[in-house]
Design goal:
The complex is a heterodimer of chains A (156) and B (151). Helices cover 35% and strands 26% of the residues of chain A. Chain A is an alpha+beta fold and 156 residues long. Chain B contains five helices and six strands; from the N terminus they run H-H-H-E-E-H-E-E-H-E-E. Helix content of chain B is 37%, strand content 26%. The chains are: A alpha+beta (156), B alpha+beta (151). Strand 1 of chain A pairs antiparallel with strand 1 of chain B.
Chain lengths: 156, 151
Amino acid sequence: MLTDLEKKIITLLQTDIPVVKRPFLEMAQKIGITEDEFLAVLNKLNDQGMIRRFGATLKHQKSGFKANAMVAWKVDEDQVEDTGNIMAGFQEITHCYRRNPAPGWKYNLYTMVHAATEDECYDIAQKISKATGQDEYELLFSRKELKKTSMKYFED
Amino acid sequence: MTEIDSINKDILNTIQLDFPIHARPYKIIAEKLGLEEDQLIQRIRQMKKDLLIRRIGGNFSPDKLGYHSTLCAAMVPEDKIEEFTRTVNSFKGVTHNYKRDHEFNIWFTFIEPSMDRIEHNLALISQKTGVTTILNLPATRVFKISANFKL
């Protein structure tokens, strides 16, 4: 279980790290601990795999990745493991998950594709289709970002 | 869009992944990239101002923190999208929401302390908006997560 101090540090880390010479000192002072104590907890959370990624999050539309498609695949269950592993190897793919199908929705494997244009997204999907031998898929292009935030854990 | 110069590209490629857990993180990055610490700090500040960098911080694994997450897909009539979006987005646990070109046109993620809470919230959303076709599609296997954009 997480201690209160760990939870406090998590709530700070999910905000924005200051761009100053000693950012963790500034954050540590906010909760009345030393910089070393702060870094020790941060290292521990990181080692335990609680931090999925630590660093900058980009506004990717601004960095040239203007098209984003969710590609939904229908893959035989006994091929999901192999297929998912091949898909994960593509640099153009940022996310790859298996999810259960649902009524009116037959797909069970999902990949997120980011590229400069929609045509490129189609090309990437085709390339993946060739590499995996899977050809039952659909591209769902994002038309509008309605919300994008980071989860704020332990803040009620 | 302003062109991103090669120094900024290097910076962005580095700080997305290898942000040092160290008392002087910017100094370490600067040394790695052959820059001065002050110069690096100036450039990062500018890229935040230009909104190229959304934020610098930790992204946590919901399951490791005892939370449950899912992806939801809703079939929403065009004239109801605004109201539906307002209702869905009012939940703190909804972190991403996109309109996509499909009959399942609204796709959002939900993170809550339990799956029951997610289902309860989806029922509330249906009740409030009249949109009853909402799929709850939790991941059963994760092959890759890397919100890392090579520039």
